[in-house]
Specification:
- The chain is an alpha/beta fold and 456 residues long.
- It has two domains: 69 residues; 251 residues, Type I PLP-dependent aspartate aminotransferase-like (Major domain) (Aspartate Aminotransferase, domain 2, 3-Layer(aba) Sandwich).
- It contains 14 helices and eleven strands.
- Helix 6 packs across helix 8 and helix 12 crosses helix 14.
- The model has no long low-confidence stretch (mean pLDDT 96).
- Keywords: Aminotransferase, Decarboxylase, Lyase, Pyridoxal phosphate, Transferase.
- Its cofactor is pyridoxal 5'-phosphate.
- Belongs to the group II decarboxylase family.
Length: 456
């Protein structure tokens, strides 16, 4: 054994203690760590030949790279839709690396059993019936890709072909309809061979990002054949929700696969005031939910649900002499693109076991309250203007000089926001989804924004 590797093995407990102490210090200072850090100009070093051992590697990391890391796990990082890692989720993440389970087969471990238990917990959290099965994937993009891949196979079945065996060319002309599709839908269609140009956008309701259901019905009626409909349970700009009840009722009249992108909006199920928005989620054929957003587990973790596991197996089954065949309750490598992966479910299991439904409901409702406070206080800032109602946890607004304001807020270290364009207007988004965030943090961000506007 390499002498440095052997020394690290002998000193493993001390190494873990050093890493723990360093991590504890980082977490203790996270509330005041700059939310955003300008990328440092760190010169790349050549690959070490001999190496320096783990303790010295930790010191090098602390000196060279850690100062340039943002406070993205903290309470005032409001860019994109980014959660953090609850204490229990972080414990789960550390133990995920410790046990290093390849969570795809029952041949050698109970890891798959833990994942299936966690899937059941999440199914209950989102109000889904047992008709939905689920598996863990890396993020919303892969969850959308898996859902659309199963939908693609369903389209083939309606036409008497198997895309998994014959290829996407066997489908012929196809239609994918959506009102405000997330960019990952286009990416998924590109990867699946459906083609970005095959996505047909449907008109929206006035002053909304929600699809006009009458226009969607007209589009379905004009097709004369099966289609895929991508509905939104929470758009990224304004957290608008398509009318899932009305859309699901259209399935009685028209043949279509209903995929619901509920990446973070699915967590509206935890809010008494907003759960009506997702009561029809169970009617979907496939569902995307991102977990490293509002469940506050570390990257990368998401889940996909479907009512059609048989079609899922058609797409993703993997045959080899050393693997179990996809009969009965299939091993997980028959259900997603990956043949091997880490036990992503453990972080979700830990945070759900630790805080339960009530604990995560409190996080969701506190974030919603912080977003509303932020939206209300925007009215006190000269030059700032809401572009849409604060429907859930994202505030979409504009100022006179969006790029300059974004840069000034980021430089302050107080917050990080991301840009967007809404109805042709350059805008900013403040997304509240971190378990640490309070209304006091919303006030601090408003103060930083006010200073940026005054200086601009």
């Amino acid at each position: 054994m390499d002498n440095r590797l052997a020394a690290d093995l002998d000193g493993f407990p001390d190494l873990l203690t050093a890493a723990r102490d360093y991590a504890a210090g980082v977490l203790d200072g996270l509330g005041e760590r700059p939310a955003a850090v300008p990328p440092a100009d760190v010169a790349a070093q050549p690959l070490p030949v001999a190496g320096v051992g783990a303790a010295q590697a930790l010191e090098i990391f602390r000196e060279r790279w850690a100062p340039g890391f943002s406070g993205s796990a903290g309470p005032r990082y409001l860019g994109f839709v980014t959660g953090g890692a609850t204490p229990a989720a972080l414990v789960g993440d550390w133990l995920t690396g410790t046990f290093d389970q390849n969570a795809v087969t029952r041949q050698d471990s109970s890891a798959v059993g833990l994942e299936l238990e966690t899937v059941g917990w999440l199914r209950s959290l989102f109000g889904l019936s047992e008709a939905h099965s689920g598996t863990f994937v890396t993020g919303a993009t892969m969850s959308n890709t898996v859902g659309l891949a199963i939908g693609r196979e369903w389209l083939g079945a309606q036409k008497g072909v198997s895309v998994a065996r014959q290829g996407v060319a066997a489908l012929g002309d196809i239609a994918v309809l959506s009102g405000s599709p997330h960019s990952s839908i286009y990416k998924a269609m590109s990867m699946l061979g459906l083609g970005r140009d095959q996505l047909r956008t449907v008109p929206l309701a006035p002053d909304r990002e929600a699809v006009d259901v009458a226009a969607l019905e007209a589009a379905l009626a004009s097709l004369g054949g099966p289609a895929i409909v991508v509905a939104n349970a929470g758009t990224v700009n304004t957290v608008d929700f398509d009318d899932l009840n009305a859309i699901s009722r259209l399935k009685a009249k028209y043949p279509f696969w209903l995929h619901v992108d509920a990446a973070f909006g699915g967590f509206a199920a935890l809010s008494a005031a907003h759960k009506h928005l997702v009561t029809a989620l169970d009617a979907a054929d496939s569902i995307c939910v991102d977990l490293h957003k509002w469940l506050n587990v570390p990257y990368d973790a998401a889940i996909q649900f479907t009512r059609h596991r048989d079609l899922q197996v058609n797409v993703f089954q993997n045959a080899a002499a050393y693997l179990t065949p996809p009969s009965g309750d299939p091993d997980l490598f028959h259900l997603t693109p990956e043949n091997s992966r880490r036990l992503r479910a453990l972080t979700a299991w830990f945070t759900l076991a630790a805080y339960g439904l009530d604990g995560h409901r409190e996080i969701v409702e506190r974030n919603i309250a912080a977003a509303r406070r932020f939206g209300d206080r925007l009215a006190t800032l000269p030059g700032a203007r809401l572009l849409a109602p604060v429907r859930l946890n994202v505030v979409c607004f504009t100022v006179d000089d969006v790029p300059a304001t974004l840069a000034a807020v980021a430089r302050s270290g107080e917050a990080f926001l991301t840009p967007t364009v809404y109805q042709g207007v350059p805008a900013l988004r403040a997304a509240f989804s971190n378990w640490r965030t309070t209304e006091d943090d919303a006030d601090r961000v408003i103060t930083a924004l006010g200073k940026a506007l005054a200086a601009g």
